Amino acid sequence: MSRRVVWLQLLIGWLPVWALVMLLMIVAHPQIGMRNAAMGSLRMIVAAAALGLVVQRFVERRPWPGRVTPPFVAMHLVAATVYSVSWLVLSSAIVSVFEGALVLAVGPSMHATLVMGVWLYVMIAGVSYTTQTSERAVRAEANAARAQLAALRSQINPHFLFNALHTVVHLIPREPKQAALAAEQIATLLRTAIEEDRDVVSVAEELAFVEKYLEIERVRFGDRLRVRFDVSSEARSATLPSFAAQTLVENAVRHGAAPRVEPTDITIAASMSNGALTLAVRDSGAGATDAQVGNGSGTGLKRLRERLAVLYDGRARLDIASGSGGVTATLVIPQDAAD
Questions:
Q1: Structural domain harbouring 65
Q2: d(CA 204, CA 327)
Q3: Are strands 239-241 and 276-283 parallel, antiparallel or unpaired?
C-alpha cells in the first residue's frame, strides 16, 4: 500500500471525529461561531492524531493476549489516562502558538475533553489491535499458501523424475549405451529440479528445461518423436509456474507418443494476448476419451491445476481438449499476478 493511500485513509478516519468535536464545541459555546469552532477542533484533532501514532507503536509492542488479564486491562487504563492528559496539553500548546498567548484548550469542557481523550485512546487501540489481527491472518494465509506450493512442487519433481528413470530402465536391455547417455542427462535435469525453488519462472527458462527433458525422450523414441517450437519473443519474457510446460510436454509424450509406432508430432506454442500468456502443447497422438479429458488425465496435471489455483486465485486455467488429431493442453496465465 502506498504512503499516499495510508495518509488518505487516516484523513478519512479522523474527519468524523473532527466533526464531532466541532459540534460539541458549538453546542457548549454557541457564541464562538462556526469558524472558530472548526479551527479550534481541527487543532485538537491534529494533536489527537499525532499522539495516535504513539498509541499505535505502544500497541504493536504489547500484542493482544490469548486471555485478557487484569494487568493487561490496568495497563491500558493507565495508558488511556496518559493519552487523554497528553492530548489536553498538546492541544493547548498548539492553540497557544497560534493565539500568541497561553491558552488552555478544553474543547467543550475540561471534563468532556478528558473523557473524549479516553474514548479516542480506546478507538485507536481497538483499530490497531484489529489491524494486527488482520495482518497476522494474512501472513498465516500467505505462509500456508507457500507451504502448499512447496509441497505441490515437491510432488511434481519426483513424478517427472520417476518417468524419466522409467525411460532409462526400458533402454538398458536393448541399448545400454543409450541408457548410459540418458542417465547422464537425467542427472543434469535432477540438479536443475532440486536447485529450482522458485514458484514462477520465465517462459525462456522453462523451455530450456523442456528441451533437456526432450533430449532424454529422443534417446528412447528416436525419429518417432518430432517436436516444433512456436514461441513469440514477447512470450519468452512472460512468466508461468515452474515445471508447468514440462508437465504438459511430458503428458503429451507419455499419452500421445508412447502408445504409437508411427511418428508423433508435438507442437509447443506460446503467445501473449490481452495481458495473458497462452501456452499450448499439441500432439498428433491417438487422442483421449471424454472422461480422460474431463479429469485432466494424470497426477502431474492435477498437481498443476492445484498450483494454478494457489498462485493465481482462479484467474489462470488449464484446458484439455481432444480432437481427431490428438490432444491439446492449453495454459492461460495472467501476467499481473504471482510475480
A1: 3-139
A2: 24
A3: unpaired
